Amino acid sequence: MSSPRIRPSDDADLAAITAIYAHFVRYGSGTFEESAPTVAQMAERRGHVLAEGMPYLVAELDGEVVGYAYATVYRGRSAYRFTAEDSIYVHHAHGRKGIGSALLAALIEACEAAGCRQMVAVIGDRENHASIRLHERFGFTPAGELASVGFKFGRWLDTVRMQRALGAGDTTRPDERR
Question: What is the reported pTM?
Answer without folding.
Answer: 0.96
